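Researcher: Here's the sequence for the chain we discussed earlier.
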Amino acid sequence: MNAVFLLREIFDYDYSEIATIIDQSEANCRQILRRAKQHVSARRARFSAPQRKREELRRQFLEAAGKGNLKGLIQLLSADVTLHTDGGGKGRAVPNVIHGASKVGRAVLSGLSRVPPTDAFISAVQINGEAGFIIYIDEQPQFVFVQHASTDSIQTIYVMTNPEKLSHLPPARPKV
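Model: Thanks. This is the structure I predict for it:
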């Protein structure tokens, strides 16, 4: 992401040149730049929560979401929380970023209500230093959630549903 941003914004390379340099398509380079610009302009909390707090928020999030507790879920989210989804055109995702605790809470519950509970297995993970979890269905990864938390609430949720990007994850290993 950094290379595309620097080559385009600082050195004014054309997308075709960038695509050749980083061995990606021009369309992919445009998307990478768009995401890099969003990342740079995103308002993020100055301090991240300690690991213990991130894990506690993840646990509470899963508990509230599992019970369909919208009020409890909203209490875990910052007022200006954002939800980003990426299905890559191949997985279920919402087309736009969702803003605000109430809207994000409802979107999360709506999305999770479509997961068949009898075939689902959830694995808590750390992804890029953030608390997250993977939802497996029939032992295959279907959703990856990553939560960025400030010192006291969840600021951003990223959900990956693109099967190509999930294909590198190992199959579920449910506890016996």
